Amino acid sequence: MRTLRLLLEKEFRQIFRDKGLLPILFIMPMVQLLIMPLAANFDVKNINLAVVDRDHSTYTQQMVSKIASSGYFRITGYYTDYTPAMHQIEREKADIILEIPAHFETDLVRESKASVYLAADAINGTKAGLGSAYLNTILGDFNNEIRMKWLPTKAAAVGTIDITSSNWFNPEMNYHLYMVPGILVLLVTMVGGFIAALNIVKEKEIGTIEQINVTPIKKWQFIIGKMIPFWTIGMVDFTIGLLLARYVYGVIPVGSLLLLYSFLSIYLVALLGFGLLISTYSDNQLQAMFVAFFFIMIFMLMSGLFVSVDNMPPWAKMITKLTPVTHFIDVVRMIVLKGSHFSDIKMQFLYEIAFAVVLNGWAILNYRKTA
Amino acid sequence: MKQFMVFVRKEFYHVFRDRRTLLILFGLPVMQILLFGYALTTEIKNAEIIIVDHAGDMASQQLTTMIAASKYFDINARVVSDEDIYKAFKKGKVKCAVVFPSGFGNDLQHGQTAQIQIIADAADPNTAKTLTNYLTAIIGDYQQQISPTANVPMRIEPVTRMLYNPEMNGSMNFIPGVMALVLMIICTTLTSVSIVREKEMGTMEILLVSPFKPTYVVLAKAVPYLALSLIDLIIILLLSVFLLDMPIRGNIILLFLESTLFIICCLSLGLLISSVTRTQQIAMMVSMMGMMLPTILFTGFIFPLENMPVPLQVVSNAVPSRWFYVIIKAVMLKGLGIGVIWKETLVLAGMTTALLIISIKSFKTRLS
Amino acid sequence: MSEKAIVCKDLTKRFGDFFAVNHISFDVDQGEIFGFLGANGAGKTTAMRMLCGLSYPTSGEATVAGYNVFRQQEAIKRNIGYMSQKFSLYESLTVRENIRFYGGVYGLSDKQLKEKGDELITKLGLEKEAKMMVGSLPLGWKQKLAFSVAIIHQPRIVFLDEPTGGVDPVTRRQFWDLIYDAAANGITVFVTTHYMDEAEYCNRISIMVDGRIDALDSPANLKKQFDAASMNEVFYALARTAKRSAD
């Protein structure tokens, strides 16, 4: 016990004296937490629309002003010909072209039917899909309006369907509520897992680990002595981040903080096991960094933080399942936004415990061999 | 010139004898292009949905069948109470629910307004919005189907065309982004480490006391990486075309020239990093950890740049991959020529020149 | 002292086909200063690591401080001190904190730590520097400090792996005074070095060539045996026979 206390004393002293490390541990994550959510905004609004109006009638003008006032679209050009509108698409100035053919108004009145043409830049599928869906809805509304004006009596024998939609857990559709907790997890991961890995490899590189190995310090004491400080730092970082999220972004966890923190504490153990594993496989900090880089990239893009896991192919979903971060991001969002209970997330708990056991076990086995 | 080639050859040896570097140079891009190329997509497929059918009549069943038949939705369960929806949402698998109130079909048949409620799990607002839209579209279709068409006068019929990507391949947006990201990180990191390594090992001093001009030392460092990055580029393009089904619609030579420009730009950035840092570790920290996040965020392939606050949009202009992303989309996917992308090309060229000048300058001043 | 500090019989370490250490046998007496010489790559460090319990021998027998290197590595660790080529104190801890840490790890009580620490600091003349970060001390002082810390728990044996590399001659002389002090206190000193003048200070030395021990005796006897004027000549005579290239 005394040995462990001495080790902890040493680690904390070293960490708090490292003027280069402290900002990386405490300031950098918080700065990122403040900036990243501002940049990470998926919200499809401000769809740029180029209008090709070959009709120039009262209706087309009403239609365009209705679209413009919907709040979703920004009219970036109003043309009489298709070519300049297409140029707008090519230069990424416009996302969708709305083309109103000549005689639109006359067709509508005389033939009782008229077409409009939408052409969407579908490279960004989401934007194209949502944009044309919005546009369709607006056109439908507009259609109803003019129909009501011309034929005020309801002619339809069949009733209309009235759709009401409600958005649970996040009625204001606030994107920050979704992103901030996830980003916080990623930041804690980088600090907890990778700085810890680098820290252990550093002792290897300097040679102090050799000295430790000839002392009566047991392996487990050394490992625990390394883990506790970074575990604590992870907890502190998460707490600071949660406070920032609350006071800056208004993210107030709905669910139980106790549940959140118990998951966090297991997660950190799993993560530190991962860091330890990296350190046992690397001889110097450079190698450790390469490995860490590779995994951070996978963690970032495959954890469901930025790109939803649900849409991935089955084999990719398997990979995400084998990534500890995925489960924690999932759980943080569930607890913070939905107030999920233990019974809702027990699978994730199981996964994380399994990660903690396997990663640490593997690391300790491997550590024995190399030391 | 002969001396220069000697240096270049030495650098090639360095690279080819270091298995780890080779692995990073070729293994990493291949893995990441494949992994992210296949996995990353925003296209929603088979989202799990709950149907709460209080009506249980023909209309509600027909509509349910239509929802089930769409590729966007998988019906997870038919439950009876709101409480069940709440529980399912909390578990996190089900993303939305459709509620038919009792008498739904009845209302519809008797020409009244029939209510239908869509409840979305808006924890992820983006998915919620998309799913709501899809459902609205399906319900709209159903309404069209049951309304005798002749009865609806003054119909505006929107005809939609999806340009460049008619199959709505959801990863089309990501692959050029991942290409830009991978090239940028690889090129920057490797060059930045390579010069600092010589500094750290003390071999740089030896090079500098040789009669060789410092500028050439720097350039000789960059040449092998340029060659290797071009090989990388070819591999990445082959993978994208043959495995990921990406089209190359534009001029392939233009694509190559633009990519080369981008690679040189990243190499110059790497040179700059390495001439201002002291150790490999710091150089790595800066070029990997420091660059990765800005590159992911500011290239614009995940989050639309125009959604960002103005200061961040300004910052994004300084990220080379942001410009390359526009170029590669234009040339590869849209089949456009230099006439459309000359501005982006100029920006990249300008950045490259500036970076090169600054890095060679700072390299020189470091000597005195 | 009758009891041997190190007994080593046919100790071997093999990596694949390569015999890093090839059946070496020797004894070291308690309180002796034993020089362990050899060219780079001769297998000194590997042998030393086995004796310190850092790696398992492939075959052979050895006891260190009476404990078996196969089965009682932990007991060995409690009874030895070790100082490696690489500086092994924590640079971002102060002199006192390093003493406290390493001493504490060997089970010294707070009171002992205080006494020993004071004694050590006075002896090295580090009173003013006691609260300074070790990283800011000059190299010579660091090495002397590292040695003093390595024997703070009064081990039976201290292993020194090229302790004086890169240190100026005056400091080296002072360092050897510390070694003599330790030996006088009954601590066995097992030291590797490349400096032949240092080899002359040892009671006995062994010279390793290609994983074997080719010579083992007191410096005076070795010089006689090889008909050499200095240890340098002895060393050259033996090192020339090496087949392995130094790495």
From TrEMBL, chain A:
GO CC annotations on file: plasma membrane
Domain of life: Bacteria
Residues that span the membrane, as ranges: 21-40, 175-201, 228-252, 258-278, 290-309, 349-367
Keyword Chaperone: no
InterPro entries xrefs: ABC-2_transporter_component, ABC2_TM, ABC2_TM_bact-type
Entry-linked Pfam families: ABC2_membrane_3
Membrane protein topology class: Multi-pass membrane protein
Location of this chain's protein in the cell: Cell membrane
Family assignment from sequence similarity: Belongs to the ABC-2 integral membrane protein family.
Protein name (database record): ABC-2 type transport system permease protein
Classification lineage: Bacteria, Pseudomonadati, Bacteroidota, Chitinophagia, Chitinophagales
TrEMBL record, chain B:
Subcellular location: Cell membrane
Name assigned to this protein: ABC-2 type transport system permease protein
Protein family membership: Belongs to the ABC-2 integral membrane protein family.
Cellular-component GO terms for this entry: plasma membrane
Major place of residence: membrane
Alphabetically ordered keywords of this record: Cell membrane, Membrane, Transmembrane, Transmembrane helix, Transport
Cross-referenced PANTHER family: MEMBRANE COMPONENT OF ABC TRANSPORTER YHHJ-RELATED, MULTIDRUG ABC TRANSPORTER PERMEASE YBHS-RELATED
Native organism taxonomy: Bacteria, Pseudomonadati, Bacteroidota, Chitinophagia, Chitinophagales
Keyword Transmembrane in annotation: yes
Organism: Chitinophaga filiformis
PROSITE patterns in UniProt: ABC_TM2
Superkingdom of source: Bacteria
Pfam family, one: ABC2_membrane_3
Topology relative to the membrane: Multi-pass membrane protein
Annotated Gene3D superfamilies: abc type-2 transporter like domain
A GO term, aspect molecular function: ABC-type transporter activity
Automatic annotation (TrEMBL), chain C:
Listed SMART domains: AAA
Transmembrane segments: none
Signal peptide (UniProt feature, chain positions): none
Name by which UniProt lists this protein: ABC-2 type transport system ATP-binding protein
GO molecular function, one term: ATP hydrolysis activity
Protein keywords: ATP-binding, Nucleotide-binding
CDD domains: ABC_DR_subfamily_A
Domain ABC transporter: 6-235
Taxon lineage: Bacteria, Pseudomonadati, Bacteroidota, Chitinophagia, Chitinophagales
PROSITE patterns assigned to the protein according to its UniProt record, in alphabetical order: ABC_TRANSPORTER_2
Gene3D superfamilies named in the record: P-loop containing nucleotide triphosphate hydrolases
UniProt xrefs under InterPro entries: AAA+_ATPase (IPR003593), ABC_transporter-like_ATP-bd (IPR003439), P-loop_NTPase (IPR027417)
